[in-house]
Amino acid sequence: MSSPIAPEIVKEHGLSPDEYSRIQQLLGREPTLVELGIFSVMWSEHCSYKSTRVHLAKLPTKAPWVLQGPGENAGVIDIGDGDACIFKMESHNHPSFIEPYQGAATGVGGIMRDVFTMGARPIAMLNALRFGEPEHPKTRHLVSGVVAGIGGYGNCMGVPTVGGEVNFHRSYNGNILVNAMCVGLARADRIFKSAAKGAGNPVVYIGSKTGRDGIHGATMASAEFSEDSEEKRPTVQVGDPFTEKLLLEACLELMETDAIIAIQDMGAAGLTSSSAEMGDKGGSGIELDLDKVPQREEGMTAYEMMLSESQERMLAVLKPGREAEAERIFKKWELDFAVIGITTDTKRLVVKHKGKIEADMPITALSDEAPRYERPYQKRAATNGKVDVSSGKPILESLQKILASPDMASRRWVWEQYDHTVMADTVQRPGGDAAVVRVHNTNKGLAITTDVSPRYCKADPYEGAKQAVAEAWRNITAVGAKPLAITDNLNYGNPEKPEIMGQIVAGVDGIGEAARALDFPVIGGNCSLYNETNGEGILPTPAIGGVGLMADVHRMATIALKREDDAIIVIGETRGHLGQSTYLREIEGRETGACPPVDLAVERENGDFVRSLIETGRVDTVHDVSDGGLLVALAEMALAGNIGLEVGIAGETTESIPFFFGEDQARYVLAVPAEHTQDILDEARDRGIFVTALGKTHAAKTLRITNEGEISLSQLRESYETWFPNYMSSEEIPVTN
Amino acid sequence: MVWHADSEIPDVDLIVLPGGFAYGDYLRSGAMAALSNAMRDVIDKAQKGVTVLGICNGFQVLTESRLLPGALMRNAGLKFTCRGVGLEVNETQSVFTRKYDHGQRVVFPVANGEGNYYADDETLDRLEGEGRVVFRYADGENPNGSVRNIAGILNEKRNVLGLMPHPERVVDPLLGGTDGRAMFESLLEGLG
What is the ipTM of this complex? Predict the structure, then answer.
């Protein structure tokens, strides 16, 4: 069919010589250039999970409330009354580094399509962002572009962006992370999947026209970066959120009919992956006629059309004879609609263009036969050792410094650029432990969070990954919801290096361990590997997106203090673990020691107790203790409610620095009305739960520590609120490479 | 709900142009929407005295279609801004605000990228002189650089109101406030 392909062309497609020989073997001949392109994207790390698949198989994915686990566009859980919640998190790291606005915007668009292609209306967005150190010349430009891009797309879609996280660390200087999570609502009996079952059914193309943008994005996302990455700018797609909004409404309207057999969005690797995956899942073949594909540019080749990652497009398989009905809907929304192919019983993907067969290959060669590697990996290597701190530094000064640090300062500058109240169901806004979005026209609420502490994962990839899951579970618990399921976004370096592969394997094991112990199954996810620049990997960053359910949003806890004379109670033991703590980094300039261990049984007992207090209406003020430790949690509660408090040291740990800044896990701070205090203390002790009363809220607008002194809330607020806006408004440092 | 391509608006007491985004906003918010089929009849009905409320993108469409004077430019900070802002009810002699007290302080959220109201001094003097500035951002609360802190204005006949902040997002204590309710109660009472 064609002449042999030069080794350098194979290399440019990111395929190894071994992989190329396997392609020749599978086809029984040389591939055409179009086929080579199709193999290159389908066998890329991004699409095939070739380095991680054997490990991901170990994750727990089932529970009675899980309606759909990994393998579809997104996971689905049952949230009662016939409602289903569909969610997923996905990375758009590489494009966002090259072109921050469009990279982040299309990341948002892509994850929304993953959710609405399954029949859900998106109701909330979150994003987990990691940037390089603030002093790096590119960081400000990247923060500004990514935040504007996320807002630009999400705001126009009319979906509230309700939460997320932002960290800065030098390991991300050349490789930022942009992970976007979308949560949607559907009827449990109206979930749409991607299996293109049956032969002779029309394959229809809907949405925007196909252009030359984003060709080979999936391959780019599967390679390390180097100095010439800027030249890859043309592989970044350009988003059009208004068209996506039309596509959303048109798809949901079509889904009201029973015309659809299968539907899938065209994400990474566009037409190629959507057609191959739909055929694969349906056990059918697909024949495409590219002459029928709506095109934005003239003279596009089959290769370009198959690999384009133009945005806002979907592929669907309809029941025969329903084309006109579907076309009417898409025309009404002023979107392109075209029948571009048909399903067959050959289990082959056949691509025709201008009367010529450009590709004819078995679909299993792209899926089941895709490479699967058991890459060598180094066994878990955890940083151990206790750390000592120089005592004598005034506690309140340290607090102020920590609150004004890049990782801990208020993220208001970020989330005020996101419309977080559109749709009128955001009952808990950004700034708390988890966002809470009401299920429209009900009293039910979904609690949503994203979490990971990359510095913990660097110190111990296993324990750190466990901690990420536990913290997501804790954040959902802290607002009063029952944690139900997670999506994981595994961001790591180059898996071909045994050290990095070791981080991945340990990370997956840690996630699995915590997910099992907390009944918090993994129902979907995404891997982003090769996050390295010039050979240096990022901190291991397995971001966890969690969703929980509360029966009544009127019984919800927030972090804001609400009354004077509430008792301040801590659930969970304060041992004063300072290894890898924020205190150590910000006050002593060290990132050393072991990360805090997570006891999952204690985590569960403490969390179940706190949740029961919220559900029974006895407690409405809760904050989990995480980065920065107890004192940071207390300060955030005081600032959120603008109510002061006085606390002292209580319990076994008597040194003030470990007591106030240690990052021991499984802890919550509660502010409890006087009439419930004794009961709650007694009940905790009866259940064998570690509990200490530290002090109470008071009338003065101050945070006072017994025997240490006090600081006004306005001073604390100044520290907490000014870092981000000041940093972003400083003079732009010209970007130099 | 009326489809943008429809050329007739049904007989109603109140037409609301809600917030959101419209086709062609990337040129200038509301510029293309103002030319849609449906807007022709909105303009006609507004001129005949039907009550029209435009919120956020709706306000932008109203200025673009010349039902209200002035223009909404890019926010002074050049960023989309979503937050609660303090407003003063500056005018209660309208069907939209009769249930508020004059000078009452309320908090409505804004959520826009182009909410920076501008008009020439002559127009502004006239708006103020005729009692048509209905909402002003309170001192120190102006989120977008709007001239003379203007957040919402009436047309000459006082049957068309445009404002950037969102009263409809503050009608439920669970969502952070009820300051917006009085606007809808005013309309119910005034148009009922």
Answer: 0.96
